[in-house]
Amino acid sequence: MSILEVKGLTKSYDGHPAVAGIDLEIKDGEVFGLLGPNGAGKSTTISMISGLVKPSAGSIRIGGVDIFQDPLASRRLIGVVPQDIALYPTLTARENLAFWGHMYGQSGADLRKRVDEVLELVGLADRANQRIDKYSGGMKRRINIGAGLMHRPKLLLMDEPTVGIDPQSRNHILDTVKELNRQGTSVLYTSHYMEEVEVLCDRIAIMDLGQVMACGSLNELRLLVGDKDVITIQANVPEAKTMDDLRAIPGVDGVSKDDGHLRVVAPYGRKVLGDIVTRLAADGVKVRSIDIKEPDLEGVFLHLTGKALRD
Amino acid sequence: MRFIELAKKDVLLMLRDRKALMIVVVMPFILTAILGGALGGMFREPTSAIGGGFNLMVANEDKGEIGGHVAEVFQADNLKKLLTPKPVATRDEALAAIDRKEAQVAVIIPADFSERVLKGEPAAIEVYQHPDSPLRGSIVQSIATAVTDNLSAIQTATTTGVELWVKGGFLRPQDLAAAANALAGQLQAVGAQAGLQQVKYEAIEPRKGVSAFQYYAAAMAVMFCLFATTSSGAKSFLLEREDGTLPRLLTTPTPRWQIVGGKLVGTFMTALIEMVTMIVATALVFRVSWGHSPLALAIMILAVSVSSSGIAVFIAAISKNSKVADLVSMIFIQMSALIGGSMVPLSVLPEGAKKVSLFTFNGIANNAFVSIMEGQPLSAIVAPALILVAAGLALALIGSRRLAA
């Protein structure tokens, strides 16, 4: 059974499509990843599913409920964790959670019990009565997630929930998502961090320029790249000309750079490795290490779009 | 009801916002202290200062009967709540009592008073006041004027009556003087029993004034009520939109009307808190009297709160973002405060400005609160309260529909 069915979803601004007729289906109990670079259309898609942005065309059904025919019923089924912290800074964590619980119709003992449960779930029970403007960025993000969980939603929409936080808080959030899924919550998780999506998601849709480029499990997506290798080179950051030179090497499918790493996708990595190193040396790029491995999502994205996720 | 929770949350946020608290509580209080203290001279003596009566020295130097009747006027029962007359023999004694502040006002009936009245010549009752007691002086002056008006009417009646008798052949010229004296004496007696005693306390009491502290307590409460509602109430709708909490609210199963309703109630609660805080604080600290009608005061607090909430919601609805709302609010509040008499008392404004002020939020509200402070009847605030509520509801309706869209 599907918790979310999206068909032909389109959103255009001044004639320019932000989302161009995408189809998505999330099965009950599934963690579904929406992966793509900034501007791919992920947030617009989430906004349309959560009812904030009216689509130009297409249909959205949540738990079998058409969100345009019965918006209030569909909103009871979803929890939304926005990309930015959408909380009241001068309220405590407990007060924030209680307020959002009220907005989902909770009250009394049930509300108080749920607040305690959520505080435990996000690991902030011991800081519950502290104003959240005193919290670290990671702690705020955790309460931001908690506010979307108050009414035990069937489907949790998480829009880049780990942007700008420390590794410890990120790991905590990833663990929370896993725990929620274990308890039966379906999750639509958008990110441009491929590692998170690889770790969390049962299925992944790769978006770029408002379109779904590919959709499937991690293994299914890897098959799209075939047996191509991903060569990861640790080096000082090369000039744009060097990147172009690398792309011009016969047998190279794509080149990207990220955090001091060069990534090169090639059907036969070892065959082109010599040419790559020669070219880098010629351009004065100092290579510190080279690693050749089977393709990951970055490689898949590179294969599908010819560019890196974070270009 | 979720809108109640929304309103409670907004009030809690306001109470935890130091800047908002400064605007709602501290600033109006400080400004009341500054303006009330600095501009006290521009105001009339407060009614409360008259209290349970003031001392009036009555020096009747006249040996005739009319002087005695005039002195009795100030001893009338219906004036006892207002003044305490103290007869003295001479002008000097009366004026010395004022100098010693044993009395605030003195009435001098000159030695030739009766004689001049009987001769039909102009006769004056002299009224002296201590410089600190202008209102009391004006009250006694009013009584004295009423007395002399009565006597003037008697003089006219005497002259006219005698002339008619002569023209009608009822009176010989040689008996003229005796008849005139007899008629004057009868009219005098009638006047003493009827005309002079008819001088009513109610009829001569002038419009009471308010002290500078009273005036500015009301003016600042009204002005900062608008500040509070526009800066902490309705503007929060725009801030929530900018901070992302409004979009998040819209993803919950809370209907839009409840979200807008919650904002409206929260704004109204903010206004109420500001008004009640100001009234209680100024009453306790500055001993400001807000009148003796709790009902009238409650009606005006509610009316001002409804009206300022409506204005604030309307401004939020027509503003693109919170910065624009701030600008529009500031311009509106300053204009309404200036024209409406919140900065300088309406009494010192030109006549044209006074008329315009009656169409401003501040002007209507200030006048109504002053009426309550003066002890005017409840009917005096019905019209302003209805106007404020009607305008507030209309603006709130228009603004809410726009915000909910």
In a few lines, what is going on in this structure?
Chain A has 311 residues and is of the alpha/beta class.
Detailed description of the structure:
- The complex is a heterodimer of chains A (311) and B (405).
- Chain A folds into 2 domains: 2-221, P-loop containing nucleotide triphosphate hydrolases (Rossmann fold, 3-Layer(aba) Sandwich), CATH 3.40.50.300; 227-294, Alpha-Beta Plaits, CATH 3.30.70.
- The longest helix of chain A is centred in the middle third of the chain and has 16 residues, at 167-182.
- Chain A has helices spanning 42-49, 71-77, 93-103, 108-121, 137-147, 167-182, 194-200, 218-225, 240-247, 269-282, 297-305, and strands at 2-13, 16-27, 31-35, 57-62, 65-66, 78-81, 155-159, 186-191, 203-208, 211-216, 229-235, 254-258, 261-266, 287-293.
- In chain A, the strands form 3 sheets. Chain A has a 6-stranded mixed beta sheet, sandwiched between helices. Chain A has a 4-stranded antiparallel beta sheet with strand order 2-1-4-5, with helices on one face. A 4-stranded antiparallel beta sheet of chain A has the order 12-13-11-14.
- In chain A, 44% of the residues are buried.
- Chain A is of the alpha/beta class.
- Chain A is built from 11 helices and 14 strands.
- In chain A, 36% of the residues lie in helices and 29% in strands.
- Chain B is mainly α.
- Chain B has 2 domains: 2-43 and 210-404, no CATH class; 47-204, abc type-2 transporter like fold, CATH 3.40.1710.
- Helix content of chain B is 68%, strand content 5%.
- Chain B has 18 helices and 4 strands.
- Chain B has helices at 2-15, 18-38, 47-50, 65-73, 91-99, 113-118, 134-167, 176-195, 201-204, 212-233, 235-243, 245-250, 256-285, 294-318, 322-339, 351-357, 361-373, 379-404, and strands at 54-60, 83-88, 105-109, 126-129.
- A 4-stranded mixed beta sheet of chain B has the order 2-1-3-4, sandwiched between helices.
- In chain B, β1 (54-60), α4 and β2 (83-88) form a beta-alpha-beta unit.
- The longest helix of chain B is centred in the middle third of the chain and has 34 residues, at 134-167.
